[in-house]
Amino acid sequence: MKPVKIGILGLGTVGGGAAKVLQRNAAEIARRAGREIIITRASASDLSKPRLCDTSNIEMTTNGFDIISDPEIDIIVETIGGAGVVKDMVLQAIENGKHVVTANKSLIALHGNEIFAKASEKGVIVAFEAAVAGGIPIIKAIREGLSGNQIEWLAGIINGTSNFILTEMRDKGRDFADVLAEAQALGYAEADPTFDVEGIDAGHKLTILASIAFGIPLQFDKVYTEGITQITRTDVEYAEQLGYRIKSLGVARKTEKGIELRVHPTLIPERRLIANVNGVMNAVLVKGDAVGATLYYGAGAGAEPTGSAVVADVIDVVRALTSDPENRVPHLAFQANALADIPVLDSGDFQTAYYLRLHAEDKSGVLADVTRILADCDISIEAILQKPPAKNETIVPIILLTQVTQEHKLNAAIAKIEQLETVSGKVNRIRLETLG
Ligand code: HSE
């Protein structure tokens, strides 16, 4: 059989990593795909930069549209990132009848509904394993490996930069800003690092995971995102003393009222495997009704790990080139005409437990006032920890863990607690998931 020709848009870290893997493992990949796969063309904005792969047989250009319109190319690999002109490139590639493999989470999260509709119309595949959790084959696992299950919930550490920062803060007592600078220097962080630390990057990935888990359209605009910028070393230490780790989690949960889609710092019991996922590593826990809880762990970023996912998608596309488009695995796991319009819940309807830290006068009746407010709001307390006052201080830190409640009840309780004369400042609130 003739080799399959591919063109890569953006031969940077991920594109270069994918090309390097394709070249190094060419023989093994051909045995798996049933055909040789060769990179004939690639684009980059600066052709003078060194590349991770061998470019001697690759025709390089600064204009990706040249590659998209090349009739010899069957598959376009998009590893530029971002959702501006790249969206036009991907839609044009589909229009030209090319299959597309992309590592672009924001593109899929923001424009995936339109892109998949167009791809179905043209009978081509758009594959996006590399868009979520780098090298972990989580899309394939949920879409195919767990397709017999009703997915109940999933929870993932899906932003390596945030995990790296929280791990360093806990292990080495380092400050937030200092660790973020290192993550940027090491190349983990997004071009705009606020995407990492404010939960946007994880929100993009969660949007995609929720869609394939529950058979709902992609709807990033409904994801609740809260970053890690307000997490202090004090909270990390108190959480530790109570037997918890703080992680930035993306949570998607199906409840009777609808679906929760939320990214936020979360206390997790330290005995859970996922609580011990450190540094830039990613992990996703998926709970299916038949299989129970399953955990997927690995590198969430980096040239070759992400390249591994890109190459797996390329092989999948090659295997499916001659298949009937109607009988391929659906892009979003469920048949396109069977996506359900399940409501995505507002944050007030979230159901979770909470860690609260407040500062109060050290005198009788203060704790009673706080616990009465919680009881009046129908919130049950799981644990209380009162720390000694600092030297020459009369104000003491009080830490409370609640049982699972509804967020609007918790918000009402916090507002009342903050009005107590004996309580100073704001109540610091972090969500808590037992992941049991
Ligand atoms: N900035 C991302 C992260 C890279 O830190 O996880 C992979 O998407």
- Structural class of the secondary elements? alpha/beta
End-to-end CA span: 51 Å
In the predicted model, the low-confidence regions spanning at least 5 consecutive residues are: none
Please give the domain count.
Answer: 3
Total of helices: 14
Characterization of the model:
The protein has 436 residues and is of the alpha/beta class. The chain has 3 domains: 4-135 and 303-338, Rossmann fold (3-Layer(aba) Sandwich); 138-299, Dihydrodipicolinate Reductase, domain 2 (2-Layer Sandwich), CATH 3.30.360.10; 348-432, 2-Layer Sandwich (Alpha-Beta Plaits). The chain has 14 helices and 17 strands. The protein has helices spanning 13-24, 26-33, 64-68, 85-95, 105-122, 138-145, 160-172, 176-185, 194-197, 200-214, 233-241, 303-320, 366-376, 407-419; strands spanning 4-9, 37-43, 59-61, 75-78, 99-102, 126-127, 151-157, 224-225, 244-254, 259-269, 281-288, 292-299, 351-361, 381-386, 395-402, 405-406, 423-432. The strands form 2 sheets. Strands 7, 8, 9, 10, 11, 12, 13, 14, 15, 16 and 17 form an 11-stranded mixed beta sheet that branches. Strands 3-2-1-4-5-6 form a 6-stranded parallel beta sheet, sandwiched between helices. Helix 4 (85-95) links the parallel strand 4 and strand 5. The radius of gyration is 24 Å and the shape is elongated. L-homoserine binds at residues 134, 159-161, 188-190, 196, 201, 300-301.
Task: Provide a concise account of the structure shown.
With 436 residues, the protein is of the alpha/beta class.
